[in-house]
Design goal:
about 475 residues; Growth Hormone, Chain: A; two-stranded antiparallel ribbon; 2 strands; globular
């Protein structure tokens, strides 16, 4: 039965679209759709993770939030992104690619503008910043709409590469906002709106910064993205109302792939959101074992120890994870996704286990603490690497396991559930020790390796992908 609804007519809607037919497939349109939606998706991830670049420095800007309040604030975009993805996953067949991408990109402006306004003076109540953190999740919700709609434009043999490029480059938005923020806030020439702030770090002299730059610089690009999407994109009229889209839940592979994608993207998004706070609380500002008091006497407990600058390292994890997703996607097209999902799970087990000792830093000397920090950083980067590989491989598996209409829905659903990663990581690190939380991560990865081997990767598997 055809999955294309030819009753929708007009300049926006494509007719008799079949990417599996090489003779009629419009490659130019497919790749144009990929690049424009990827540009907008990158901005969506910027909006989603902008709070993670700002929240670790809120107290240094004059706010007085507890460690628990900051963890919850950093977790909120993950909670809302998961909820928003449940909405966005059903939008591609209903709105079409053009309307969905254009309107979503415009919606990103709301939270981005709000953060730019509220960092300029430490006067916003906690609930207001939580609302802004919640709205930032729209950027995460976009993923569950953008990815399925892009899959409609490509044949199955190219979907691993196409979706890997879109998701991987989109994921670069995480590291982009975290990498550029420390440079943007130092450029007074960019501060066309608002005044400067004083950034007071423990044991350091106050710095003059313009934190609004970290938000405002993205807004013109969001406008450009919305205009490009509205003027240059088309829509595939797929037959799938809400009731029809929900038939994916009667297929057990929907649930198995959800579990696997929680392991991969849940880890990537969760650690991306919490990496800076976790690093600061273990090895820098906010750790009572390291920081005592405030001002010039803040680091007297461990003389000679240089507290690492979180912003100098926090972008590396998302960068490596996103890069792995892009680089390994063509390999999944050639070798299949299941084998790489298996490698991802095994790599996560090993890298999490290696990292666990560094979650309880040795504070007996500056040398020991510095060594533990290097251990922690390398272990975390390895976790990001294997999570990125798994992000690429699972998105190759889904179009191979499910028929076209269902594959889009499953991609949206699994992405929605995994988007709760920042929220779950934030809650987990609030209510339990990092060591216990990481041990739970190992147990989950072991379960995922068993599922992958039995159902997808072993010789004679029921659903090789």
């Amino acid at each position: 039965m055809s999955t294309v609804d030819n009753r929708r007519t007009g300049g926006e809607w494509l007719q008799s679209w079949d990417p599996e037919n090489e003779q009629t497939w419009d490659k130019g349109l497919a790749w144009r759709t990929l690049w424009i939606t990827t540009f907008c998706l990158t901005l969506a991830f910027v909006a989603w993770f902008l709070p993670s670049a700002i929240i670790p420095k809120l107290n240094a800007l004059g706010y007085e939030f507890t460690k628990s309040q900051l963890y919850w604030m950093a977790a909120m975009p993950g909670l809302s992104a998961g909820l928003f993805r449940l909405v966005w996953m059903v939008l591609p067949p209903m709105l079409g690619t053009r309307k969905m991408v254009s309107l979503t990109t415009l919606l990103l402006i709301a939270s981005t503008l709000g953060w730019g306004v509220r960092v300029q003076a430490p006067t916003a109540p906690y609930w207001e910043l939580m609302v802004l953190a919640f709205l930032a999740g729209i950027g995460g919700g976009a993923f569950s709409g953008f990815m399925p709609s892009t899959s409609y434009f490509f044949p199955k043999r190219k979907q691993g590469t196409a979706l890997g490029l879109q998701a991987g480059i989109g994921n670069f938005g995480v590291s982009l906002v975290q990498l550029l923020t420390p440079y943007l806030i130092a450029l007074g020439a960019l501060a066309l709106f608002g005044s400067s702030q004083q950034l007071q770090m423990p044991g350091q002299q106050a710095q003059q910064v313009w934190y609004q730059n970290a938000a405002f610089v993205w807004i013109p690009l969001m406008v450009v993205g919305a205009v490009l999407a509205w003027t240059m994109l088309k829509s595939v009229p797929v037959k799938a109302n809400i009731r029809q889209q929900f038939d994916i839940f009667s297929n057990q592979d929907t649930w198995w792939m959800t579990v696997l994608y929680i392991m991969t993207f849940g880890t990537f998004s969760g650690l991306s959101a919490q990496f800076g706070l976790l690093m600061a609380n273990l090895y820098g500002i906010g750790n009572e074992q390291i920081v005592s008091g405030s001002g010039p006497d803040a680091q007297m407990l461990i003389p000679g120890y240089d507290v690492p600058d979180v912003v100098a390292f926090v972008f590396l994890g998302p960068l490596i994870g996103a890069g792995a997703r892009v680089l390994f996607s063509p390999l999944t097209d050639r070798m299949g996704g299941a084998i790489w999902t298996l490698i991802s799970g095994l790599g996560l087990i090993a890298s999490i286990a290696v990292t666990i000792p560094a979650l309880t830093p040795d504070t007996s000397s500056a040398e020991a603490l510095s060594g533990d920090f290097r251990h922690f950083l390398l272990g975390m980067l390895a976790i990001f690497l294997f999570a990125g590989i798994g992000n690429a491989s699972t998105f190759k598996q889904m179009p191979m396991i499910f028929e076209r209409r269902q594959a889009g829905g499953v991609i949206g659903w699994t992405a929605a559930v995994a988007a709760f990663g920042p929220f779950l990581f934030g809650v987990g690190l609030t209510i339990m020790s990092p060591t216990l939380f990481y041990l739970i991560g190992i147990a989950w990865a072991v379960m995922c390796v068993a599922i992958t081997w039995m159902r997808y990767a072993r010789p004679g598997a029921l659903k090789p992908g």
